[in-house]
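Audit log entry. Action: structure prediction of a protein-small molecule complex. Ligand: pyridoxal-5'-phosphate. The ligand was supplied as SMILES and no pocket hint was given, so placement is left entirely to the predictor. Protonation state taken as written. Sequence taken verbatim from the request; no trimming, no tag removal. Recorded inputs:
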Amino acid sequence: MEIIPGRRSTLLERSGTLKFFYECSECGCTFEIQPELMVCPACSSKQQPDEPLRGVLEVRLEGSIAADFDIVDLLPVEKKFFPPIPVGNTPLWTPINLRKRTGFENLFIKDDSLNPTGSLKDRASYLVAAFAVREGISDVVVASTGNAASSMAGIGAAAALRIKIFIPVSAPRAKRVQSLQYGARVVLVDGNYDMAYEQSMAYTREHGGLSRNTAYNPLTIEGKKTAALEIYKQLGRAPDYVFIPTGDGVILGGVYKGFRDLLDAGLIEGMPMLFAVQAAGSCAILTAFRQGGFDPAYRSQTVADSIAVDIPKNGYYALKYLRMYDGQCSVVEDEEILEAQKLLASTTGLFAEPAASAALAGFLSAKDSIRKDSTVVLLVTGSGLKDVQAAMKAVVDEQDGESG
Ligand SMILES: *Cc1c(COP(=O)(O)O)cnc(C)c1O
């Protein structure tokens, strides 16, 4: 079995020192990176209540990047500020049985369920925590469907930060328990994620603290780009396709950003085709991509809680990249997600949460339009142990002889 190891220590040639700054993804204005600045002041002043965030800032790099770059050097916080916990460097590996079953001989899994708190969110929390430490900030506040919260709680614990989280009462129990174990202060919101988000914003306005809200804090996008940088390093090239479970569109945006850094540096020749995979009951980005706008009244409903979003916070940024690089959106039913979850677990040994399994479901629904010799990466974003109740649906139903 071919395994491309993730956790290896490398003695690589260092890139020259890079300069980092923020650029507004809407108007192109540039700013110094500073904790008080989250969104572009001019563009965010046009913010309407029920639309994606306006004026999302993007970290830009200036300077040259060596072919053997060290990933941490491509991040806007110096290595010494990162907490002592092994985030990222997750394995990219070969699911032999899935390759045989699908006929795709260059299919890979990027297993981000192996991050310390069990999801890809750790990549964002890691950079945000390092930034807080560098800036002397002790309090971090986040709203979440569950994973961003448990992630910030865990990575925050490693960084000795105080973490306050806002999650819906309906969040899977394991994610709540994780957050409590890590010592975060948890506020249960009697409503959905979008309401938790509003409450957390009101809290930071009143009490201060660094917000780690996804997309709103630009470092959440930047932190997630490391998934793309690792895929590039592990393959030794860019893949042809990456399937990405998508809710708010921050992972999607972050993966685009990572490959864009590589494109700008001349290290890859083209942008891989990214597939934003959404649940049929939570597909605001896909709808906007095909029809041009976000519906303020849209209400999401899916078994895949981590991608259940009414108004995708990073919607405008995600759309911009999907259009700029001819990305694709695909939509999968809850039933397909649960089937993919079972298929992934039973053919590869990887037990992923429903949202993470959407990557495989999306690939299965799109594979007939893809050349079989393409290099395809499924980004598996979170562990199945985070939501055992959802996972029981497929197995119990099968025993009962029922479908769905
Ligand atoms: C957050 C999350 C996603 C979706 O990421 P967005 O940035 O909201 O699109 C997918 N899978 C898992 C497991 C997640 O925790």
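Audit: result stored. The pocket of pyridoxal-5'-phosphate is lined by residues 119, 121, 147, 214, 245-252, 306-307, 353, 355-356, 381-382 (CB under 6 Å). Residues 1-15 have pLDDT under 50 and may be disordered.
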